[in-house]
Amino acid sequence: MNRSFSIYLDLVRIASALLVMLYHSNLRLLSVEKLPLSTHGHAAVIVFFVLSGYVIAHITATRENTPLEYWSSRLARFYSLALPAVLLTPLLDLLGEAMAPQFYGDRTTHDLAWLRILTSLAFLNETWTLSIMSFSNVPYWSLCYEFWYYALFAILTFLRGRRRVAWCAGAALLIGPKILLLAPVWASGVLLHRWSALQRLRPATGALLVAASCAAYGAFHHHGLTEAGSAWMRQLIGAHWHQQLAFSRFFVTDYLLALIVVCHFAGMRALAPPLERLAPLVRPVAAYTFSIYLLHQPLIQFYGALLNGDPARPWFYMTTMAAVFLSIFAIGTVTEQQRHHWRRAIHRLLAAPPAQPLPAVVLGIDTPIGLAIIRDLGRHGVKVYGIARSDGAPGLGSRYLHRGMLRADDVVKQLQQLGEEIGPAALFAIAEHDILAFNKARDALHNYRMMFADAARMERVLRKDLTYAAAAEVGIPVPRTWHPATIDEAQAAATQARYPVVLKWADPNAMIPLLRQAGLQLEKACYCDDAPAMMAYLRRYQSLGRYPMMQEFAAGHGLGQFVLMKDGQALYQFQHQRLHEWPPEGGTSTLCVSLPLSQHAALMRQSVALLRKLEWEGVAMVEYRYDPATGQAALMEVNGRFWGSLPLACQAGASFPWYCYQALALDQPIDAAPYRAGVRCRYMTAETRRLLHVLNWRELAAYAIEFLRPHSGYFVFDWRDPLPLWCDLRHSMLQRLREQRYLKKTR
Q1: Which domains, and CATH codes, for the chain?
Q2: Which contiguous run of DSSP H or E holds residue 70?
């Protein structure tokens, strides 16, 4: 496209936008006299359609020649202005109609507001026989047409063979015949660009085409062919179907009008008038034509209602339109003119990450932790294989999972067979008993690069006595703790302790088989309010000869500091605060929020020092109870694995699975970015159980308000990956039904 013709098209774009604006401002409430040139509005829309087809054909031939580049630009172009226009219009209508309802009458709509907003944002207002008006914004209909022409053009341009046919058929079935009727008008612009014979016209031929097209349009408008064609169509198909066609009811004469426009553009391109000097004046105004087109209608009615002057005086019309123009340029400056930011954001969202050289195998995808690892690795281009305990595992539904499988009885042998199939891979394990088992089988799993610490390091964090000893050496406070070997030692400690006291096993994984042999179950923690309750609990284990450790309860809330360590260096740090836990007195995090690293900075340095003392490699969570009243933190434990609130870290931008993969599997520097503080995340299952336990009006209100927070996410639900939530809900419902059937059979 030569520069002269490009400037001419900008002039046409400006003129067309102003004609549409003039057409909609031709209200007797604004001016008692009929405005000159106010009857060319529909013709201007057809010009826009032809022009749009031409421009899209040009940009795909020159720069937007991949689906990613095409859709990044097109969606940015649409949504940078469509989103604010759709949300602003009902607000303007509401205010304007309250001030002067006569400016609205039947020119706006009120009912089903959310439906109108959603269909407008999805550009579905004009599908099939629908004609959903976007409140007072009548011109929005053409945007709903144009979006689907963009989609059809992309299908025809970027797809081949059966996929092209299938996608075209699917799009046609979605949008219906009404939008398709005007598709030839839009396609005529594409034809104008691609038909090589039209590009070789001589100037004399061009001048003839320009003169003929101008004369043809003059005759077309003089004889009212648009209205005549519409009337003929009404007689042919009947009043009902004519009404159902809505804005496509002029399609027969629109084809003729499109032909006139194409001839005019072809002639002007051949003439190449010297317009380069006008570029500094034309280009800035042309940049606002989309804003003029899409915003003028609701603004005209709003300012008409606001000023509410005398339509017999030209000053009222001029003042109203001046306010409209000023508003359009103000809004367009912060929306349409900033669409490059939208384009970059959409490009990042749509772009597929580069494929990584090493696949990953994740065990424990039944949990939100495993699901978070799948999502984080998958979004960074890692091919992920997942192993689940049941077919209801949420991770099996993730679109980021390359392949899922159920866990075999001999999982080590299963991993060996998988390794023979896929070659070297990074192995992620979540459960501590899996980590212990795989550490024993490292020689058998030599094909895998372990994303967890070795056996010696794991022992240091699983045995709390060793962890607490290391903490004491680096100056980290630990609640007073006793490790009774006999019931008499426990009785002596009971007289010294301050209550409540928490009883928990120093090495729970080592105790699981011993407790099972004694017919006992492992309890993560028991809270005792006095010495008799504590001693009664401890006597349960006299026959075993082993006792849980006794620890004074630490007041405050849970504080987790998370670190990725390698070769004694902290590669990445993150921290969060537990807002809610289940059980409420301390346990699993059900609602948590990311904290900036500027908070608790001294404590974070101590956490890193503790991990160095433990010679730690990999990810770890150093868990504290922090009392805001005293500013003191007490160490609870070190989790030498991926932790329960990992979804929060990933949603905040702390991509620990990806960083761990880079550092330990690829042995590369991590591509780290700062995370976002203030991000909140909920584990809905446990959070709901907590709500039912502490039910009161304040908690119920907070539970509901959390859904409305803009920076609040969920452990399982993710709008980009919705199927895991359905898998989780389905599995929970089936499990509940099985439990009920079992109870009925046993009664």
Answers
A1: 3-201+279-350 (no CATH), 360-452 (3.40.50.720), 480-552 (3.30.1490), 557-716 (3.30.470.20)
A2: helix 67-99
When pLDDT is cut at 50, 70 and 90, the band that residue 104 belongs to is confident
Rg of the chain on CA atoms, in Å:
34
- Within 13 A of 606's CA, how many CA atoms are on the CB side? 21
| Ordered DSSP codes for 306-338 | HH---TTSHHHHHHHHHHHHHHHHHHHHHTGGG
Q: Which tokens in the block code for residue 546?
A: 């082993």
Longest CA–CA separation in the chain, Å: 113
Q: What is the DSSP string of 186-200?
A: HHHHHHHHH-HHHHT
**Ramachandran category for residue 545: left, alpha or beta (phi over 0 → left; psi -120 to 50 → alpha):** left
Count the neighbouring beta carbons within 10 Å of the beta carbon of residue 260.
21
The pLDDT tens digits for 299-355 are 999 999 999 999 999 999 999 999 999 999 999 988 888 888 888 888 888 887 888
Instruction: Give the helix ranges, DSSP H, for 251-366.
Output: 251-271, 279-286, 289-307, 314-334, 339-350
Token duo for residue 560: 């987790």
The answer for residues whose C-beta is within 8 angstroms of residue 396's C-beta and 6 or more apart is 365, 386, 388, 404, 727
Q: What is the mean pLDDT of residues 224-246?
A: 93
Cβ density class 539-578: b for 16+ within 10 Å, e for less: eebeeeebbbbbbbbbebbbbbbbbbbbeeebbbbbbbbb
Q: Which residues contact 221 (CB under 8 A, 6 or more apart)?
A: 39, 40, 43
Per-residue CA distances from 592 to 74, 642, 651, 693 (Å): 38, 16, 12, 18
Between CA 59 and CA 54 the distance in angstroms is 9
Predicted confidence (pLDDT) per residue in 273-295, tens digit: 888 889 889 999 999 999 999 99
Give the Cα separation of 172 and 176 in Å (integer).
6
**Both tokens assigned to 377:** 């690795």
In this predicted structure, the answer to whether residue 586 has a pLDDT above a threshold of 90 is no
Q: Is residue 522 very low, low, confident or very high in pLDDT (cuts 50, 70, 90)?
A: confident
Beta strand 549-552 with 501-504 is: antiparallel
What pLDDT is attached to residue 353? Answer: 82
Residue carrying the six token digits 């502490």: 694
Q: What does the block give as tokens for 156?
A: 């025809």
- Single pTM value for the model: 0.68
Q: 452: closest CA among 651, 663, 234?
A: 663
User: Which has the closest alpha carbon to 399: 426, 374, 365?
Assistant: 374
State the Cα–Cα distance between residues 418 and 415, nearest whole angstrom.
Answer: 5
